[in-house]
Amino acid sequence: xxxxxxxxxxxxxxGGRARRTGWLLVFAAAMGFLEAAVVVYLRxxxxxxxxxxxxxxxxxxxxxxxLLREGATxxxxxAIAALAGRDALDxxxxxxxxxxxxxLAYYASLRAALGWPESPGTWDxxxxxxxxxxxxxxxxxxxxxxxxxxYAVHEALGASGRTLRLGRREWALASAGAATIVVSFCxxxxxxxxxxxxxPFPARLYLAGLAIAVLPxxxxxxxxxxxxxxxx
Length: 232
What we know:
Blueprint: H1 4-8, H2 14-46, H3 60-84, H4 88-114, E1 123-127, E2 133-136, H5 138-159, H6 168-186, H7 189-193, H8 203-226
Antiparallel strand pairs: 1-2
């Protein structure tokens, strides 16, 4: 007997899933290149000799535009997730895919255009909201890789009629881990504000947050493979 939920949300064919994923990848990669192009222009103006710390101060009007650009970028990813997602859970994973591919495409584009970053240990400014986020590029790249992997597992389970579904406690744990990662990225924000070279990155804090965030999804994926119900 078919439930009302299954009637309202029929399983998408393999071709439909692949087509959707393909267009999401195109959008995210193009968005990453577009973001990189803007940064190429900014660095030509503010860092003609190559990007480096300490950060060169921007005029306030340019800084405000940069903040708005960052907000608009997140808004674009939210919009595509809302349009492409089948339900709230699916939209979450679509957001993760687009964010992850956008981030990696951004760094790949900068590498191709400027030869930067020179290595995974190269420091970068990640975001400016609400305070500057900074770290070696390796760490956000790892987060992006996990986001992409999460979408891949979600789609693989969905194609076989299963689901990657977390309980409330698992969502709370994953959120705590994500917040810890954000704290690690913001840990050295005063180094930007006070225009000095960044100090050591809090790698242990980051790794703890990553483990806390990933564990609930790993458990949910294993449970989905076995066909077990999500906990409360």
